[in-house]
Design goal:
alpha+beta, 5-stranded antiparallel β-sheet, LytR-like, LytTR_DNA-bd_dom, LytTR family transcriptional regulator
Amino acid sequence: MNIDFHQDETLAENDIKVLVSANKLSPQVINLLNQLNELNDSINENKVLPVSTDDRVVMLPFDNIIGIEVYGNELTIYSIEQEYTTNGKLKSVLNNLKPYHFIQISRSAIINLDHLKSMETAFSGSMTAFLTNDLKLNVSRKYLPELKRSLKM
C-alpha cells in the first residue's frame, strides 16, 4: 500500500478529503474503507457546545445550531429548537465551531453552513443569508469572499 499526501488549496481550511484508489474493490479495500468511515464517525460524534443560561448548562449539539449573533458580550444562539442567550465572545465560540461547517459572515455573526438555505443580494454589496427556521442574517462584504469559497462558488 502506498500512502501519498496531495495539497489541495481548493478545500476549506479544515476539510480533509481522502481518496482510496485500487484496481478493484477487494475485501482489503472494503476493510480500509470501513475503518476510514469509523474514524470519520468517531471524529464527528459528541460535538456539543455547552451553553450557560440563567441557572443551568445546556449541551447543544453542533448540528442543531443554526447561527450565533453577538451584541456586546451577549451571545444569541439560534438552534433548531429555541434561542439561547448567554455571555461570551464570538471569536472563542467560532474557534470551537469552525472545523464543523461554521463560518463567520459578519463582525457579529456566524452561521452553520448546513442550515444555509439561500442568499439574496442586499444593499451596498452585502447579502442576506436565509437559514433554517426563517432566520435571516446579514453577510457583510468583508466576509463574503470566504463564504463563497466555502460554498465553492
